[in-house]
Amino acid sequence: MAEKDILEKILMSHADVFADCVNALSYGGRNRVQAGDLCPAPTESFYRGRRGMRNQLCDVSFYLMEGDRIALQYIIGNETRLRKRQILRKASYQGGIYRLQMEGQGEVYPVIGTVLDWTGKRSRIPLSLHRLLAQGGASREDLELVDEMKLAVWHMRNLSREVRSRFVSDMGFVVDYLNEGNFEGRRGQRIRHGKALCEMMEALTGDTRFTDLVEELQDRQEKGEEIVMCEYLDMLEARGAIKGENRLAALLTKLYSLGRDEDARLALDDRQVRLRLYEELCIG
What we know:
Elements: H1 2-12, H2 15-26, E1 38-40, E2 44-49, E3 52-57, E4 60-66, E5 69-79, H3 86-103, E6 111-117, H4 129-135, H5 140-143, E7 153-155, H6 161-164, H7 171-180, E8 190-191, H8 194-205, H9 209-212, H10 214-222, E9 227-228, H11 229-257, H12 261-269, H13 271-280
Helix pairs in contact: 1-8, 7-8, 8-10, 11-12, 12-13
């Protein structure tokens, strides 16, 4: 799980992918943020706990710059398990940043936080501070005196086609595959971060074909070659065919060595038989 979180962060750490996520999700597809205006921001902040100073880490954060001035800070959190008190995590992250602004001498700037949920499960966690406090027993009268904070959560495996169409970076490949199981709608789109994309796709799907292609993609991109999705699909299909042939060959060799000629014949004719025998003989 920790490795998956890291791989999600790697793709998101590219400024064009980060800007694309902000534009597609926070700004409804408007081209509000340009990659060239982003500067990596610290992901670590500090607070005083019961045992002294403690640190906390958010996932990915960028400053939006206007010349030499910080105009805004964005935080994107990748979650593989949403917690009931998620809104308090947001308050803690943003509170740490505002505290630094309070103690510093520079200008103050807003902080915008967004959560990406990769679980595929709809969650009923409280999406506002007031709702969380109400569930804990706070009265409506008291809540009127409490500043509100809301939580923006995007369920990345349950995005509508309209929302997915807003993505123009490599993240578009990810969300289309997770929601439709293919890349067909982006056949003509260029792949920009091949290694990060392939590793994230394997982490999210478990399909090792994606990372089998990493070195080939890297070599071609380092040579200055552009790779569009239709070429990548051809590479995936070829790799899948080679793996399938190797797996079948290993199965038949094993069956013949065990004297199970009839099972070998059935395996050639019946896919369900092949799948059962792969599992029985531990041929991955």
